[in-house]
């Protein structure tokens, strides 16, 4: 049975490996050195919540990373579900759902007003998953971005 728990600095190397695979999935160039720096910083500064999925044999097979943001209109914390990844060989086992359920629990524990996320329209599996676990697709708002790179 897969166990979901908060990541610690002891998990750095396997989380970096998963994070790098996640980035490659989104067509970014592999860069484990920068990934290690980035994830290490998140854990040490405690400015995100990273939960990992640990298999029965102790291997990390997935992770989810959330960032706190705030809703001014609701005057509450809101969690941005920024990253969700399960290794290829462990997909289809309900691990993503468990990671999302843990995120929902974090929302309740922190008295947050909800979770938001963004994913590519081409992420067919992810889009089906998010609907199945209670997320609603927002067709009423436009989302804009500005890239400094």
Task: Describe what this molecule looks like in 3D.
With 149 residues, the protein is an alpha+beta fold. It has one domain (3-132): Gcn5-related N-acetyltransferase (GNAT) (Aminopeptidase, 3-Layer(aba) Sandwich). It has helices at 12-25, 32-45, 95-109, 124-132; strands at residues 3-6, 49-54, 60-71, 76-86, 115-117. Strands 1-2-3-4-5 form a five-stranded mixed β-sheet, with helices on both faces. Strand 2 and strand 3 (60-71) form a beta hairpin.
**Share in β-strands:** 15-25%
Assigned CATH superfamily:
Gcn5-related N-acetyltransferase (GNAT)
Unreliable stretches (pLDDT < 50, length at least 5) are none
Number of helices, counting only DSSP H or I runs of 4 residues or more: 4
Q: What sort of overall outline do the alpha carbons produce when their principal axes are compared?
A: globular
Question: For the residues shown, what is the average pLDDT?
Answer: 95
Largest sheet: 5 strands, mixed
What structural class do helix, strand and pairing data support? alpha+beta
Portion of residues within helices = 25-40%
From the alpha carbons, calculate the radius of gyration and give it in angstroms. 15 Å
Q: Class, according to the CATH hierarchy?
A: Alpha Beta
The span between the termini is 42 Å
In which order are the strands of the major sheet placed? Answer: 1-2-3-4-5
- CATH third-tier fold name: Aminopeptidase
Query: What sequence of helices (H) and strands (E) makes up the elements?
Result: EHHEEEHEH
């Amino acid at each position: 049975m897969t166990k979901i728990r908060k990541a610690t600095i002891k998990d750095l190397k396997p989380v970096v490996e998963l994070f790098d695979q996640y980035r490659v999935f989104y067509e970014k160039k592999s860069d484990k050195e920068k990934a290690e720096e980035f994830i290490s910083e998140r854990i040490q500064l405690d400015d995100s919540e990273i939960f990992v999925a640990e298999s029965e044999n102790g291997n990390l097979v997935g992770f989810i990373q959330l960032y706190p943001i705030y809703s001014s209109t609701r005057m509450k914390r809101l969690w941005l579900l920024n990253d969700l990844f399960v290794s290829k060989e462990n997909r289809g086992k309900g691990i993503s759902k468990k990671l999302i359920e843990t995120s929902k629990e974090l929302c309740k524990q922190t008295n947050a007003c909800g979770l938001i996320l963004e994913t590519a329209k081409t992420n067919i599996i992810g889009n089906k998953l998010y609907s199945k676990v209670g997320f609603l697709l927002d067709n009423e708002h436009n989302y804009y971005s500005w890239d400094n790179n």
